[in-house]
Design goal:
The complex is a heterodimer of chains A (315) and B (472). Chain A is of the alpha+beta class and 315 residues long. Chain A is built from five helices and 23 strands. The chains are: A alpha+beta (315), B mainly alpha (472). The A-B interface holds A 142-145, 178-181, 187-190, 192, 194-197, 218-222, 226, 228, 232, 270-272, 276, 279-280 and B 66, 139-143, 146-148, 150-151, 153-155, 157, 163-167, 196-198, 201-202, 289-290, 297-299.
Chain lengths: 315, 472
């Protein structure tokens, strides 16, 4: 296994490997050798895993990525207020904070993207999507849910990982499905965005309605065969963070940073407070930029993303 | 076919003359039957086929493949449509903004949601909504009723029914109601979990698809059923409507007198949104926020002010008009088109000359002159599109207002056939959808007291004296 001074090595002891291997064998042997996720087919990803296993002699490793919502130096909590927000230093009372992440990839020290295969609990995680839920329904977060989720759980091949990439957004293939029959976590009505034909990718609400941020695809078009076939502005953010130890560090989503460049009291005329991803709402420009979206075209732009950062943990 | 009711063979004091007994004779409920009624009801294994009451000359509505019609779903959807439990604060139902007697609109300039928030738009008529390829004033992507229902239920800009994040509360409310438990089970017998969001919106969509209106005087006239259905004035108005001076029919044509339709067997679907020159606030075609029409979705400038031309069926009762309800009468609407657009004078809100809107449909909205008589004539014609039967059809009415429990066919009397239905419903051989009004206490069962009450009404008449229920 290659070793790099900057990387953090995810490896497994022989005992863990043996257990993982036998679990995988027990699940897949009767069906299809090499079908690690038991979906009845062997995909390129699974072949990559096999090759990795051949080279590195070990099975997939469980990974739990830790996330935390902060407002500057303070932890996010429903019921708290936070001062000094935005360019005018306003006070906000957060009333919701949830977001869908997808397409999570760990980056090796060589820069190779390795997909994180999400555990399929169908509660917080489904297919390639996970819901991060920082609100706990305590007032004023009344439209929320009591349980919270601040982790992303999955497996990767052993390797030397030092970075991460992910999207804030629901992948196109799931975004325009029938929300009424969707699996959890895509069945939460507070995240529905039916009038735009999809989901809110990220939802931040404020109790006094000073500012809101609802990220989602806009300008979607309906085509044959009877479904949405494209969206003018996908608005799926891409986040790229380096110097990241997946086994120890925390990824912080900081509302204060998201709002840092906005005067939240000054609203673009004839638009809702904050940003509802409306291409005509100039308030969106900075907010989408800070989330990792280019406001002018709705495409991902990780280079100017500021809302997410890595918090190192003392070892 | 499902099993039908069989008369009890051997009971004490079976009814003299049996079920076909003459009015006035005493009905004795067989107590062996009463014993049956406390047994758990077996869920029906199959749904009852629904047959559309398609108006003459209309095509068959298109039904989504994952939501086939059934009598059970339609009746369940009707209850849900009229049920205030579908709003967060129990203040409103779908019917609050879609009232039958107003062509399923609300008579307001702009609708008001359950929390008092004013909607930017005028309530859309549900007349013949089964044929509508797009459902709202300006969304090109809201195409099926099931999906659309979730906008008023869960939307927050604006809040309408206010159920956002409260789906579990909604399910619990419905689960607590015995009638819903039974009706969901009978509408979705194959599902393990019945009271779900998908099944709620499927039922509402099924009910909405039954709202077919094609029995206006206009229809009876053009079908040759009644040459006197339209007055001479209305006939003259019709000629103007379908003529090249008024040009109405280009955007309000076809069997539904609407812009575009979808129906079973149709291959190509046409979607139409048009700018009719209502505003021009900046001299460059601008419409006031947040009502800029299709532009609000596409952000393509040519889509500025383009809204869906609605069906003109029942237009007489759906005032005020236009997407924002700012034209109050049919007369004013005709004046608007005669002037090729609306001019709002300087000093008033949203001032501007709409007739000069560059995005207007200039081909058809180019103005016309008319005599006072012609104006009367065209309005007379529009009033001939009012389908009184549709506006008063008890099958579309509020099922929580029960005029005569057990009068399953709304004929204002209770017949032997309906008594047979009631017993079949009671023993689980027919679904409650066959006669929702039977279950007066909405516990999901038709019990002896409810049957006795019904028989009493059968003998005494719905509108007449209703005798007190005999003690037992």
């Amino acid at each position: 296994m290659l070793e790099h001074s900057r990387g953090w090595i995810l490896a497994c002891s022989i005992g863990v490997c043996a257990i993982l291997g036998s679990l995988a064998a027990a699940q897949t042997a009767p069906m299809c050798v090499g079908d690690a996720d038991g979906d009845g087919e062997v995909t390129v990803d699974e072949i990559v895993v096999s090759v990795n296993n051949a080279l590195q002699g070990c099975g997939l490793l469980p990974v739990t990525l830790q996330f935390q919502a902060m407002v500057g130096d303070e932890a996010f909590a429903c019921g708290n207020s936070y001062d000094g927000i935005g360019t005018a230093g306003d006070r906000i009372f957060p009333a919701d904070l949830r977001m869908y992440l997808s397409n999570v990839r760990l980056l090796t020290t060589m820069g190779t993207e390795v997909p994180l295969h999400l555990e399929q609990d169908r509660i917080w995680q489904f297919q390639d999507v996970v819901l991060l839920d920082f609100e706990d329904k305590k007032p004023p977060c009344g439209q929320g849910t009591v349980p919270v989720n601040t982790t992303v759980r999955g497996t990767v091949p052993p390797g030397d990982y030092s970075g991460i990439r992910f999207n804030v957004g629901v992948p196109f293939g799931l975004n325009h499905q029938n929300a009424a029959t969707a699996s959890s976590p895509l069945n939460l009505t507070a995240m529905f965005w039916n009038w735009q034909g999809g989901y809110k990718f990220l939802r931040f609400d404020e109790a006094l309605d000073l500012v809101r941020v609802h990220l989602g695809s806009t300008g979607c078009e309906y085509g044959q065969p009877g479904r949405i076939t494209s969206c003018a502005r996908p608005n799926r953010s891409e986040v790229y963070l380096t110097n990241f130890d997946p086994s120890a560090d925390t990824i912080v989503f900081d509302l204060a940073t998201l709002l840092a460049d906005s005067d939240i009291q000054a609203n673009d005329p004839d638009t809702p407070p904050g940003c509802m991803s409306d291409p005509d709402d100039d308030d969106c420009d900075i907010l989408l930029r800070n989330l990792g979206v280019n406001f002018s075209n709705g495409l991902p732009d990780p280079s100017r993303q500021t809302a997410f950062r890595i918090e190192k943990h003392a070892e | 076919m499902r099993a039908s009711f069989h008369r009890p063979r051997s009971t004490t004091a079976s009814s003299p003359g049996g079920i076909g007994t003459a009015r006035g004779s005493r009905w004795h409920v067989p107590w062996s039957l009463a014993a049956l009624l406390v047994l758990p009801l077996p869920a029906l294994a199959t749904s009852t086929t629904f047959t559309f009451n398609v108006p003459l000359g209309f095509p068959t509505p298109k039904v989504p493949s994952d939501n086939p019609m059934s009598v059970e779903k339609v009746e369940l959807g009707r209850l849900l449509f009229y049920d205030v439990r579908l709003s967060g604060n129990l203040m409103q139902s779908c019917a609050s903004c879609h009232q039958q007697e107003l062509g399923f609109t609300d008579g307001l300039e702009r609708s008001v949601g359950s929390t008092g928030e004013v909607h930017p738009r005028n309530a859309m008529s549900l007349t013949n909504v089964a044929y509508a390829p797009t459902l709202t004033w300006a969304s090109p992507i809201l195409r099926d009723l099931e999906n659309q229902a979730m906008v008023p239920m869960f939307g927050t800009e604006p809040v309408e029914l206010g159920l956002e994040g409260r789906e579990d509360e909604l399910f619990a409310r419905l689960q607590a109601d015995g009638r819903y438990r039974r009706m969901f089970a009978e509408a979705y017998p194959e599902d393990d979990e019945r009271i779900t969001l998908a099944n709620i919106v499927r039922a509402i969509g099924s009910f909405q698809r039954t709202l077919l209106s094609g029995n206006a005087p206009y229809d009876r006239f053009i079908l040759g059923l009644d040459d006197d259905a339209l007055s001479e004035s209305a006939i003259r108005g019709g000629n103007l409507y379908f003529g090249e001076r008024f040009e109405c029919f280009h955007c309000h044509g076809g069997f539904n007198l609407s812009s575009s339709v979808t129906f079973e067997g149709q291959v190509f679907e046409e979607i139409l949104f048009e700018n009719n020159g209502l505003y021009n606030i900046d001299g460059m075609g601008g419409y006031p926020v947040p009502n800029r029409g299709l532009f609000d979705h596409t952000h393509v400038i040519e889509d500025m002010g383009r809204f869906k031309p609605p069906t003109l069926r029942n237009i007489e009762v759906t005032a005020p008009y236009m997407h924002d309800g700012t034209i109050t009468t049919l007369e004013a609407a005709i004046d608007h088109y005669a002037a090729a657009g609306r001019t709002i004078p300087e000093g008033e809100p949203n001032a501007g000359d709409g007739s000069q809107n560059p995005f207007k449909n200039k081909l058809f909205i180019r103005g016309f002159t008319m005599t006072p008589q012609e104006k009367l004539d065209i309005i007379e014609f529009l009033k001939g599109l009012t389908d009184r039967e549709f506006l008063a059809n008890p099958r579309f009415s509020n099922p929580f207002d029960i005029a005569c429990p057990g009068d399953c066919d709304y004929s204002s009397d209770i017949t032997v056939d309906e008594i047979v239905i009631s017993v079949n419903v009671a023993v689980g051989a027919a679904s409650l959808a066959a006669c929702v009004s039977l279950d007066e206490n909405s516990d999901g069962e038709v019990d002896v007291a409810e049957i006795i009450g019904m028989v009493t009404r059968a003998l005494g008449g719905c509108s007449g004296e209703v005798a007190a229920l005999p003690a037992h």
